[in-house]
From TrEMBL, chain A:
<protein>
    <recommendedName>
        <fullName>AAA+ ATPase domain-containing protein</fullName>
    </recommendedName>
</protein>
<dbReference type="GO" id="GO:0005663">
    <property type="term" value="C:DNA replication factor C complex"/>
</dbReference>
<comment type="similarity">
    <text>Belongs to the activator 1 small subunits family.</text>
</comment>
<dbReference type="InterPro" id="IPR050238">
    <property type="entry name" value="DNA_Rep/Repair_Clamp_Loader"/>
</dbReference>
<feature type="domain" description="AAA+ ATPase">
    <location>
        <begin position="33"/>
        <end position="198"/>
    </location>
</feature>
<dbReference type="GO" id="GO:0005634">
    <property type="term" value="C:nucleus"/>
</dbReference>
<dbReference type="GO" id="GO:0003677">
    <property type="term" value="F:DNA binding"/>
</dbReference>
<dbReference type="InterPro" id="IPR003593">
    <property type="entry name" value="AAA+_ATPase"/>
</dbReference>
<keyword id="KW-0235">DNA replication</keyword>
From TrEMBL, chain B:
<keyword id="KW-0067">ATP-binding</keyword>
<keyword id="KW-0235">DNA replication</keyword>
<keyword id="KW-0539">Nucleus</keyword>
<dbReference type="GO" id="GO:0005663">
    <property type="term" value="C:DNA replication factor C complex"/>
</dbReference>
<dbReference type="InterPro" id="IPR008921">
    <property type="entry name" value="DNA_pol3_clamp-load_cplx_C"/>
</dbReference>
<dbReference type="InterPro" id="IPR027417">
    <property type="entry name" value="P-loop_NTPase"/>
</dbReference>
<feature type="domain" description="AAA+ ATPase">
    <location>
        <begin position="34"/>
        <end position="162"/>
    </location>
</feature>
<dbReference type="InterPro" id="IPR003593">
    <property type="entry name" value="AAA+_ATPase"/>
</dbReference>
<dbReference type="GO" id="GO:0003689">
    <property type="term" value="F:DNA clamp loader activity"/>
</dbReference>
Amino acid sequence: MLWVDKYRPKTLDKITVHEDVAKNLKKLVTEQDCPHLLFYGPPGSGKKTLIMAVLRQMFGPGAEKVKIENKTWKIDAGTRTIDLELTTLSSTHHVELNPSDVGFQDRYIVQEIIKEMARNRPIDTKGKKGYKDMYVMAVLVLNEVDKLSREAQHSLRRTMEKYSASCRLILCCNSSSKVTEAVRSRCLNVRINAPTEEQIMGVLEFIGKKEGLQLPPGFAARIAAQSNRSLRRAILLFETCRVQQYPFINNQVIPPMDWEQYVSEIASDIMKEQSPKRLFLVRGKLYELLINCIPPEIILKRLLSELLKKLDAELKHEVCHWAAYYEHRMRLGQKAIFHIEAFVAKFMSIYKAFLIATFG
Amino acid sequence: MGGEIVLCRPKQVKDVAHQDEVVRVLTNTLETTNCPHMLFYGPPGTGKTTTALAIAHQLYGPELYKSRVLELNASDDRGINVVRTKIKDFAAVAVGSGSRQGYPCPPYKIIILDEADSMTEDAQAQCFATHNGNLLQSYKILFHLIIEPLASRCAKFRFKPLSEEIMSSRILHICKEEGLNLDSEALSTLSSISQGDLRRAITYLQGAARLFGSSISAKDLVSVSGVIPQDVVQSLFAACKSGDFDSANKEVSNVIAEGYPVSQMLSQLFEVVVEADDISDEQKARICKRLGEADKCLVDGADEYLQLMNVASNTMRALCNMPQDSYE
C-alpha cells in the first residue's frame, strides 16, 4: 500500500492539516441537518480525504466498503435513445461519480441519473448502533464539477433545491470560478487551501516516525519545498526517496518528476537557439510529453515558469501575457499542440528581437 | 438546504419586499383577474420566482393549484419538444371559471417558465405560439437572451436590487424567527457581501448558523461566503505597486494555492482599483481593460493562474507607468 493511502486520516477527528475545517464539518454533520457542500481547492490539498471522512462520520464504517461499477444508462432524449457509460463508486449509503467523463452529454447525467437517484430514498438503515437513523438520505459525491458544461450546471441548480429532502450533494472541484454562481450560492462553500510547507514537514516527520525512519536534518524541508505545496506529491516523493536509498544521506538528491526535467530541457533548448530547426526539435519533445498524457495546460504553465527563471524583468511581462493568451486559445480550440507550439514560436521571436536590440 | 429559504418565501404578492411598482400593478391585476402574459426580469434573489408563485397561489388557491399551474424550470429538459408537447397539451385543455373558496379562479391556466433565459431559442419561438395558457416568466439579468417576438408579447416587470435597509430588516426578521444573534457589524457585512441578493444573504446566514452556532460574527460570514479577506487582495495590489515581477508572481501563486476563486479576486481587485485615490484615470482604465478580458477568458475556461498573472503583470505596468506595448 502506498504511504499516501496508508496514512490518509480516516475520521474527522484524526485530520491534522485542516483541523478547524474538520471540526466545523463535524459539528455540521452531527447536527443532523447538513446542507449541500462544495469543496474547492488546489490538487493535493486534501479535499477527497475530507469528503471520505465526512461520509464516515455520517454513515460509520459502512461508507468505506465501496464497489466499482461500470453501468450503462439508457436515456430517452425525445427522438432517439442515448447510451451512456459511466463508472460509479458506490457504497450502501453513497454514490460517487464523475459526470464530466461523458463529455458533452453530461447534461443527461445530471438531468436523468442524478434526479433518479435523488428521487429514490434509500432503504431505512435503522438499528446500526452509534449511527442509528442519522442519515436516511442518499449522498451523491460529484467530482470535477468545474469541468461540467454550462447546461449541466444549470440543470443541477434546480435538482439541488427540489430533492433536498431526500438527497445531499457533495461537490468537489479545483476552481470555483468555473462553477456557476447559481450552484455556488446553493451550497455551503468549503475552501480547502493547500497545506503550508511547515504542515507538510509535520506530516512527513510523522510518517517517518511511524515507519521508523531516520531523517537527516533539513530533509523534510527540502521535500516540502519541492512539492509545490501538494501534500500528495510530498508523500510520494518521500516514498520514492525511501525506495531509492536508505538510510538517507545528508544531501540526498530528491528526484524531480521526469516530465518536469523534460520541460526544463525544452526551456533551455529554446533559450539556446531560436530558429525553425530548433522549433522542429522542440515540437518532437512536446509531442513526447503529450503522448505521455501530461495535460497541455500543465506543460504550458511549467514551461512558462522555467522560462521566467531565465529572463530579464522587462521581457517577463510580455512572455506572461502571451502564455495567458495561448492558453486561452488552447481552451477554445481543439488541438493543444498548435497552441503550445505557437507560444514557443512567439517566445523565440520576442527573445531574438530582444537579443538583437541589446547586442546588435 | 433551502429550508429557511423556502420557509421565508412570502405567500402573498403584497408581502414581496421592496418591489413597490410591481406589487401595485400586480395587486390591481389580481383584483380584476385580468392578467396579461408577464415577463419578470432582474438580478438574482430579488423575488421573481417568489412573486410568480404567489400570484399563482392567490389566483387559484391550494385546491386548484395543481391542475391549473404548470411549473417548468431548468432542471427539466426544455428543448423544443417539451415546449411543443407538454406546454401545448397543458394549455390546450380549456377550463371554466367561477370562484371557489374565496379564490378568483379565472378561466385560464398559468404556466411558469422559471429561468427562461436558459431555454433554447427554438423553444422560446414555440412558446409564443401557445396562447391559451397564461405565461408567467421569471428570468435573470440577461434581457437580450429572450428573443424579441416573445418579449414583445409580455408585460414586462423589472425587479430592482434590494436596498440595504430592506435587506437588513428582512434579515433581522429571519434572525428573530430562527433565534439567531447578529451584531450590527455582521449585519452590514452581510448586506455588503451579498450585493443586494437576498437569497444569497440568507444562504450565507444559514451556512454560518450551521457552522458557528447561533451568534454570528462578521468574520464567520466572510469565511462562509467565499469572499477573499481584504488583506490578501491588498498584498497582491501592493506587490503590483512595488514593480517587482517576482514578488507579484509569488503573491499570485499564493492566491492559487490558498484556493481563492480567481473570478472573485478579479472583482475585489476591481473595487480596490476603482476606489484608489492615488491612481490616475488613465491607469485605472488600463487596468480595468485587462480585468475585463481576463474575466471573459475565465468564463471560457482558461487557466486561473495564467490569467491572474497576466492581470497582475498588466496592473504592475500601469501602476509603474511603464510604456504600453504593442500587444496591449
